[in-house]
Give the backbone structure.
Amino acid sequence: MTTENPTRGRAIEWEDFRLPPWVIGVIGGIGIILLWWILAATVFSNVGPSGASAIPTPFQVIQIMIETGPQYYLNNFAVTLAEAGIGYLWGNGLALLLSAFVLLVPRLEGVAMQLAILTYCIPIVAIGMLAVIVITPPKVGEPSGTAILLAALSVFFTTVVGALLGLKSADKSSLDLVTVYGGSKFTQLVKVRLIAALPATLSALQIAVPAAFLGAVLGEFFGKIEVGVGLAMILAQQASNGPQVWALALLSGGVALLGFALVGWIAKAIAPWSKGR
């Protein structure tokens, strides 16, 4: 018995050529860098009063990184990452506790959602200005309380929504089975709802990584600090050092993307079924 090739006898189409995702990512990254270089060398090549162009070339950004040295970036990013990490833990921890409490006391769901929406709708700039007055400025090299607060607020809403959606997605028959065997709502939460909520909760925690880092950087714009990515950006902007601003911005994006990918890898390891595996 012989089998025939299903593609024999038909024209080869573009769908037959499928590149791996990492190859597509590399091609896209190279394309963006080339487009950036061309625009910086042509359209945005005009030099302003400060003697620097609005958009530096990739070579100028790499050059300023080498001239500044890695220690400068390590010192600033270490503080900002500490602030983002602490805010990430506090914001997500409170969001998960609130979501679990709502499942035990359903009548409080409206209050919990209003609280989450309130933290999302209030302008973070206004909160930052108030936090500067209330929170004591940190010592040199210590995390800023203002940055931690804004990082925590930046992740609270998305995690509450994601966790509640996940906890409510539990299979009704499984919940009824726990009830038939005499289980309480807490037993349902531990035995059924937490497992069902893992995919949505882990996705929310993944989205919260860049949000926490952004909140920490914004907090450094307001906080009275001596070191940090936010302060480094302000100093570079005041000095009209375009390449340094771009270097800090690109490194910030890289750090946030790395954290996003790390949490995604952890999510695949913990709940592989959420990714179709």
